[in-house]
Design brief:
6-stranded mixed beta sheet; 32% helix; Peptide Methionine Sulfoxide Reductase, Chain A; alpha+beta; 6 strands
């Protein structure tokens, strides 16, 4: 088994994590924060929408069972990547790439999505180099599973 890591921002991380967990080949997920200016942000900091962080899901996947390209398709299918007026920056649509290959794949699929012209607003997904991942507090991890207990 060859595990790889991918990181995505697609709105509130609780639902995004839940959706990625349904993908065959995903071996682990954790939610957190990425892309901001503050070191060691906590949930309240990120909720202020002043740190520059996005809520993200870091996905570990078995590349023999699930390709990065299929993860990108899942990413675009589980959220609306267009600009919706009033949307908080922490809930932006971003693909954080870890390798040059991920960057190239993300940019290619993003161009394909944009060319479809299927959204009411302009697709605003960005492709950004993954920075430091700050793991969210434990009560956010697998949030929906915890609420079902």
């Amino acid at each position: 088994m060859k595990n790889k890591v991918a990181t995505f921002a697609a709105g509130c991380f609780w639902g995004v994590e839940e959706d990625f967990l349904k993908c065959e080949g995903v071996t682990f997920t954790e939610v957190g924060y990425m892309g901001g200016r503050m070191k060691n942000p906590e949930y309240e900091d990120v909720m202020s929408d002043t740190t520059g962080h996005a809520e993200v899901v870091q996905v570990t996947y078995d590349e023999q069972k699930l390709s990065y390209e299929k993860l990108l398709v899942a990413f675009f299918s589980l959220h609306n990547p267009s600009t919706i007026p009033g949307t908080k920056y922490k809930y932006r649509s971003t693909i954080f790439y870890h390798t040059l290959e991920q960057k190239e794949s993300a940019e290619k699929i993003l161009q394909e999505i944009k060319s479809l012209d299927i959204y009411d607003y302009k697709v605003k997904t960005t492709v950004v180099n993954a920075g430091k991942f700050y793991r969210a507090e434990e009560y956010h991890q697998r949030y929906f599973a915890k609420m079902k207990r």
